[in-house]
Amino acid sequence: MKLKSVLLSLTLPLLLPAALVRADVSAVAQSAADYAVKSYEAAMTDTLAELVRFETVARDGVPLEENDAFTGFKQALQDKAQALGLEYQDHGHVVIIALGDAPEKLGIVTHGDVQPANPAKWRQSPFVLDRQSEPGKLIARGSEDDKGPIATALYAMKAIKDQGVPVKRRIELLVYLAEESDWAPFKAFLKTYPMPAYNITIDANYPVVTAEKGWSEVRVTAASNPFESKVQPYLSDFYGGYFRSQVPDEAHASVVNVTPELVKAIRKRAAAHQSVKFEFIEREGGLEIVARGKATHSSEPEHGVNAIAFLADALKVHDWPANAAGSTVRYLNDLVGTGIVAKQFGDIAYSDDFMGPMTAAVTMVKADDGGLTSYLNLRRPTGKSAKQLDGEIRGALADWQQQRGIKLAKVDVELGDPYRVDNAPHVEPLLKVFRHFTGIEDAAPTAIGGSTNAKLLPNAVSFGPSMPGAAYTGHSEHEFITEEQFRLNLKMYTAMMIEIGNL
């Protein structure tokens, strides 16, 4: 289906009168959902504005309890929960906000930490909710991933409480504070946490996510082989990217001893990539090149334009000496390329009928003690064992080194396991909620490239906040949630808590 048709099918149902939408949810769920929007849409937006102002980014060497952003964020959550008449528990890296006291539970899992944001790439501070720059959009780091869903869940619970809706299960909203950096504290917490029978993460896509690819990474370090020449062109520098789960929107290269012919050739190849903006700064005997693409979540590389990959491709016109920068550019061009499914990387490419292809995106290239390291983020589906894939990756790199006469300083391969849950009893009720409020009758379970905490919980599936077919803006330098989607999420989360809470 063409993108235009997909978007039309997603937006038209939102405009339908309630009477025309198939009634697959209970009348009490519909009533509570309508009440939530009428009573709390403005308050939900104000709460989002309060939550995004905390720069909840993990800082190396700073424990969570000593990070003022996190302590302030937790205090804001506590104050809000108490104001809404909800129970609040602080378990260190995990905050629980709960409604009800039934012995059986429904777990709603989200996170309050965020990825870094480059202020230079935002119209306003990424940690101030921007409601003016683009009317209809709520722009800020965390607006979609995941502070928007937190605010939505709070007011869904408040609406249920106000309406006195009977719910058989205690609703527990688990807000984890290191999802973007370290899953170990959450794993430790879950060892003693009485696990709910039904768990739903609100950190991905609709309709219902029942499978997630495994977060994986190939780290290749090119040795710091000094190279200097007064006449031969070489790369003195090559770097780019901001963090390891973002398709990078900026990359830099420095060329020494550049000739007019070489400049012309680089410019010509760069011009073929119309989706990338290149800046050429000519200096005496040298050339600085900046490539600017489009950042996106590395789980959806198809929605971005990878500045590192396309800058390397623009430099493909010359066989660069094998210092750290030259070796890295050769590796990227030979094995990674500008595609997103690893077709050039030996035999590693593969696909699963439900989960789709393994995707690959170089996310960073940066200097470290060992040389120049490139980070290739893979999202691997079921269909190939980790042992086989690891062998194929290392085999392709070994063959490349032999063919190129280049010895890499280090190769690290980290392969995460894909996740898939079949026959979870709350999948069909969740689909009914989605179909009811969107009018999308053929909605079915889906798979994503992202990796959420659902992997750590039994029978866990994901339910929003992003619509199918829409680019997930979390981890980008233009993260937002539309006011319309925010409103729709409040309806669906309210109904979801009632319907699944009464299973």
Automatic annotation (TrEMBL):
- Organism lineage string: Bacteria, Pseudomonadati, Pseudomonadota, Gammaproteobacteria, Cellvibrionales
Write down the InterPro entries for this protein, in alphabetical order: Bact_exopeptidase_dim_dom, M20A_pepV-rel, Peptidase_M20, Peptidase_M20A
Q: Which PANTHER family match?
A: ACETYLORNITHINE DEACETYLASE (PTHR43808), N-ACETYL-L-CITRULLINE DEACETYLASE (PTHR43808:SF31)
Q: Which UniProt keywords apply?
A: Cobalt, Dipeptidase, Hydrolase, Metal-binding, Metalloprotease, Protease, Signal, Zinc
Say which domain of life the source belongs to: Bacteria
Q: Where is the signal peptide?
A: 1-23
User: Per UniProt, what is one Pfam family of this protein?
Assistant: Peptidase_M20
> What protein am I looking at?
Dipeptidase D
| Keyword set includes Methyltransferase | no
Q: Which residues form a coiled coil?
A: none
Cofactor field: Zn(2+)
Gene Ontology molecular-function annotations: acetylornithine deacetylase activity; dipeptidase activity; metallopeptidase activity; zinc ion binding
For the keyword Cell inner membrane, the answer is: no
Which BP terms from GO are recorded?
Answer: L-arginine biosynthetic process; proteolysis
Q: What is the similarity comment for this entry? A: Belongs to the peptidase M20A family.
**Membrane-spanning regions, if any?**
none
